[in-house]
Amino acid sequence: TKTHFLGTLSLVLLAALTLPVAAQYVTVGDPGNPNDQNYGPGAFGAVATTYAIGTYEVTLNQYTTFLNAKAATDTFSLYNTSMAADLNSAGISRAGSSGSYVYGVIGTGTRPVTYVSFYDAMRYANWLNNGGGSGDTETGAYTLLGGTAVPSNGLTVTRNGGAQVWIPSENEWYKAAYYQPTANGGDADGYWLYPTRTNTVPTNNSPGAGANRGNFSDGDYATTQSAGYIGTQNYLTPVGAYTDSASYYGTFDQGGNVYEWNDTIIGSSRGLRGGSWGSDEFNLRASLRDTVDPTYEDLVVGFRVATVPEPTSAVILSCGALMLLTMRRRTL
Question: What's residue 40's pLDDT?
């Protein structure tokens, strides 16, 4: 009935307000912090305002929802067939034909999505910025011109004022990973070398409890605890699987699992940080800065998003809509 539907909607929106959004972002406070002067090249980490950043990397579940909402035809090449074919990171399957593509998660959906370009990440951020669902992918946090997978302004496009969800800048990403005020128990200079609140080299144990751990390679792969490469082995771990290895602000996997895009323009490239399941501990360090062409897609590259400090109505409504859709499907 109408009354029952409205009651359900109210409960869904309340749940969206109190649980899903809050669980997905952490607030990064301490605005006006200084740059890290110790780890080069350059100096990073200063952010003038308070913001929020994804607690976790964007997952297969989340990106599959995006694909099913926006890529029935896949005009913008949001899907890479290696998402299914590469068993080291699979992934996401695609069925049907152009105009009616349907996407599904392969395996554990809480692992991070890979094989996403910087353009894919921007379009995902725009979609969230515009409320998810049928929300536009070409405007919002970023204005993408050209109507193609690689827009004509793609190399120079910058974040729009008033953006609600975006790809973090290098400074935003860096601060969330490495900063902890000295007065609140941080290092003497306010920055750690690793995103696990320490200057001590992490260990790559199997996922679980225990501080200063991550999914990277120190000769052995974390998921197998063996140096032998296996072509059919999925080397990704669920986001947040290293339960005691968060940054000061509460982010997980900023060291290892997958490299993550940031929206800083460096020549004709965009920034990458954080290392991956296949890289050694050196790549997890604050001192390691990577750049790559924004069209690059690979099994070790993913991303996370940032947002305003409090959940916006668009984000809340998008979560509510997704929950309602799930409930409706279960009752059909």
Answer: 59
